Amino acid sequence: MRGEFDLIAELFGPLAAKFPGALGLLDDGAIIRPRPDRDLVITKDLMVAGIHFAKDDPADAVARKLLRVNLSDLAAMGAEAIGYTLGFAAPPDIDIEWIRLFCRGLDQDQTIFDLSLIGGDTVQTSGPLTLSLTAFGDVPTGQALKRSNAQPGDKVMVSGTIGDGYLGLEVGHGMWPGISVEHRMYLIERLRIPEPRISLGISLRGIARGVADISDGLVADLGHICAASRTGAIVHADQVPLSSAALAIEAIEGPGLTSGLLSGGDDYELLFTIDPDDHARVSDLGKKCGVAIAEIGQIVNTEGVQVVDAGGQTIKLERSGYSHF
Amino acid sequence: MRGEFDLIAELFGPLAAKFPGALGLLDDGAIIRPRPDRDLVITKDLMVAGIHFAKDDPADAVARKLLRVNLSDLAAMGAEAIGYTLGFAAPPDIDIEWIRLFCRGLDQDQTIFDLSLIGGDTVQTSGPLTLSLTAFGDVPTGQALKRSNAQPGDKVMVSGTIGDGYLGLEVGHGMWPGISVEHRMYLIERLRIPEPRISLGISLRGIARGVADISDGLVADLGHICAASRTGAIVHADQVPLSSAALAIEAIEGPGLTSGLLSGGDDYELLFTIDPDDHARVSDLGKKCGVAIAEIGQIVNTEGVQVVDAGGQTIKLERSGYSHF
Predict the structure, then answer these.
(1) Structural domain B147-308, CATH architecture
(2) What is the ipTM, given to two decimal places?
C-alpha cells in the first residue's frame, strides 16, 4: 500500500523531527506545551493551485509564500512563531519531485523563522492542489495586537513599500516591458516571497493600536481596521511609500497607477495606528527592525477610508481590495 | 463587493460569537488563552467533496462528520475540546443554502461538545468543495495519550462496535437489501455521524498505553500503534464486538465479511492497550462513559498485526486499511 503514512513519513516527517510535540507526525494529533503567561495565536490561510499560485510556480516559492502569509498574520498580532500544521489535498498525478521541492522551501523558511511543522493531513482530490496552513505563535498574556483598537486622532503608519506585490503580478503578465531587469526581478520576488514583519510586530506590542497586515490591499485592510474600531481614516496617497521599482513604473504610467498600488494587495507589510506622541519611538523601532516606517494618514471619526492627493482632493479607487470569494 | 468578509461575517460569524479569542472572525488570527498546567492538543482533517463525502450528502451531516473525526482524534489523545478553525475552499457556484445548512450542523455539534469556531479562511476553488478543519483541545501537562506506549503483554481493547461505518457505506451503495430498515438506518447513521469518545478518552488518561482512534480500519490503526510502539499484536476476530445490524449481515454473508469489518475504517471508536491488571477498572470506565469496552487481543513482541479466528488460524485480510492517498 502506497499510503498516506508512507508519504507523510518520507517527505514531511523530517520537517517535524525537531519538535517533540509533533510526535513524528505518527500520532492522532500534535502537542504544544504553552509557555507560562502566554496567549496562543492561531492563523489560517488556504492556497489553491490556479487561483492563489500558478501551476508552474516553483514549488519551494509556493511553500514559502503559504508559510509567510500566515507568519505575516502572526506578525500583525505581535506573535512569535512556534509551528504550523499543513493540510495537503493533492491530485493523484502530483509529481513527487514537486512535493520534494515544496518541502525544501518549507525547510528553508523553518530555519529562517525558527519554527516547525507539527502535524497535518494528506488527502487526495479530484481538483487542483489545495493547501491549508494553520500557524501557531504566542504573545505575553493579553498583549496580542488587534485591529479593533484604532482611535480618532491616531496616525496611520505602514512598514516597507506598498504596491510591489500588485506590480509583481502585472509585470509577470508582461506589463511595462521597458523597466529594468533588476526592477522586474525585485517586483516578482516581492510577490513570490513576502517578508513577514515578525520582529516589527513584536516591537509594536503595547504601542500600536489598530493593526493588520496588508493582504487584501492597503485601503481594504485599513477599512477592516476602521470597521473593527468603529472609526474612519484619511490616507494621503502621496505619502504612501513606494519602492524604486514602483517609482520607475509610476514615471511611465502616471497618477493612474495609484488605484492599483493602494488596492492591489499581497504587500504583507504591517499597517497600524499609533498615538501621535509615539511617532519618534516608532520610527526608531523601524530602524531597529531594519524596515522603514512611514506615516500615511490619520484615523478620523467619520466612517470609511478616504484617499486624498497632495492637493487634498479625493481619489476614487477602482476597487477597494482583492476579493477572495 | 460580495467579499470573503461579508460571507464570513454573515454565516460563520455567529458560530464564533461566544469565544472572545475568535475576535468576531474579523482579525488576522484567533487567540487561545491556555489554562495553567495544560498541554494544547491539535488535530487536522481534510474532507473533499466526491472523495470523503458525496455531493448530495446533507450539508449538516458533512459538517458534523468533519468536526467529529477531529474530535475523535482529540479523544484518542485524552483531550478536552476547546475550538476549531475552518478552511473552506468552495467552487464559485456553491449554493448559499448549502453553507447555511452546513453552519447549522456545526452549531448543533458546538452545543453538544461545548466548543467554538475560532477562526478560518474562505477561498474560491476551481475544484470540488474542500474542507480543512483544525481542532484544539487540552490535557493536563504531560498526560496526552499517545500511540507509542503499547507494551508486550498488554491487552488490546476497543470501544463500541466495529465495522458499522464500512457496512454503512456498502448498504448506502445498495448492498444487502434484505436487512431491516432499522438496521440500514443505523449503519448509515454510524457512517454519517460518528460518535467521538471524548469522555472515554479523558477517563483513559494515566491508564491506556498505546491509543488511537479507528479511522483507517481496526487492523491498520492497530498497526500504527504497533509501529509507534515497536511491538506487534494478535487480534481475535471472534472477540471483535459487532452491532446487531452487523450480526444480521454476517448471518447472510458468512465469515467472508470479517475482512471488511476489520479493515473498512470510519469506526471512530477508541482502540487502546492496557496493563492486564487494569482490565476491571477499564470495563467500569466504559460503563461510566456509556460505551461498551471489549478485549480483542494482545500486544506481542513480534512485528505486525496478526488476525486469528476462534480456532487460532490466521485470517488473511484483503487489505489492511483505507488508503487516503
Answers:
(1) Alpha-Beta Complex (3.90)
(2) 0.91
